[in-house]
């Protein structure tokens, strides 16, 4: 029997394709494309893999199951971030011990007392602990918990620091008008509960109407990404935006008080801490928006650690340094001397300020002195007002030295 064969047999991994020639019985072999396979000889076409769960390379005889990926506990980057979080927790505990053992010293008292410090340290502890919810296989519980825990604890921390900034500004401000306004504004418990309560409401509404959930991302060709889908980008942005607003207000108050007594100038360090926070989160937005895959949670962890370390170190490290290394200025006598010197200088500045004198019930003007006399003359009609105001300021300076350390500074 005579047989004619114009085409060779197609192997598995290939399919038959009819040639464009006059011999319609002839064909050529073509490799199966990506995500297709052929497991028999002379197959007329390649079979398609389920691209949601499987994949196949070019010229494949079978489909391969996609690997499930997420930020795993044994990932080198995850281990590094966990170590940094653990070091932060240890630092929080060490600071708590130092402050507890020195609770009657001026530095601890000027920080708002032990209770306020404990609340802030607890917030930092929760912020460091919240990073663990970003690592491991995503679950509905972890997806809902991680953003809520971070948002509420960080807001409480910023609210306490905001209260302290306002209190410092009130204690060291000798402008009567501004001090009256600050006294009306200063309601510590109300400030903390209101600021934190608003964030609790935001997070609660987020969890009720558009809670974060686990999402199976199959858009990549060879892997499945398990990730937390935030549910509502608007709610996520509102949570972060609200924290940013509080941090900005805190920055303004702290910036105004940056020139307070050097040894206890907490406001200056709060300003630095808020700047670190802003830089970290402004950098986070474009990186988070352009990052894809299993390392998206790592980006947020890094930003949380940077902002948390920045605020923690700027708030507590200078005080720990004074407690441990500068014990000679951590005494009541040194503290009172420093406060008296600053308050006397501040009140004297107000007494001699033309703007302050002008704020009385009339205008006080100063004429330029002659080059030979080098002295200023005041209008006679306003002499009594200027002298009375200066005398009041001197009395205030005297009273500040007696009452300020007891009433204001001891409660900062």
From TrEMBL:
It is a multi-pass membrane protein. Keywords: Cell membrane, Disulfide bond, G-protein coupled receptor, Glycoprotein, Membrane, Receptor, Signal, Transducer, Transmembrane, Transmembrane helix. InterPro entries: GPCR_3, GPCR_3_9-Cys_dom, GPCR_3_9-Cys_sf, GPCR_3_C, GPCR_3_Ca_sens_rcpt-rel, GPCR_3_CS. This is G-protein coupled receptor family C group 6 member A. Belongs to the G-protein coupled receptor 3 family. Residues 77-333 form the G-protein coupled receptors family 3 profile domain. The keyword Phosphoprotein does not apply. The chain crosses the membrane at residues 77-100, 112-136, 148-172, 184-211, 231-255, 267-289, 295-317. The lineage of its organism: Eukaryota, Metazoa, Chordata, Craniata, Vertebrata. It comes from Nomascus leucogenys. One of its GO terms (molecular function) is G protein-coupled receptor activity. GO terms for cellular component: plasma membrane. It is found in: Cell membrane. The keyword Transmembrane applies. Homodimer; disulfide-linked.
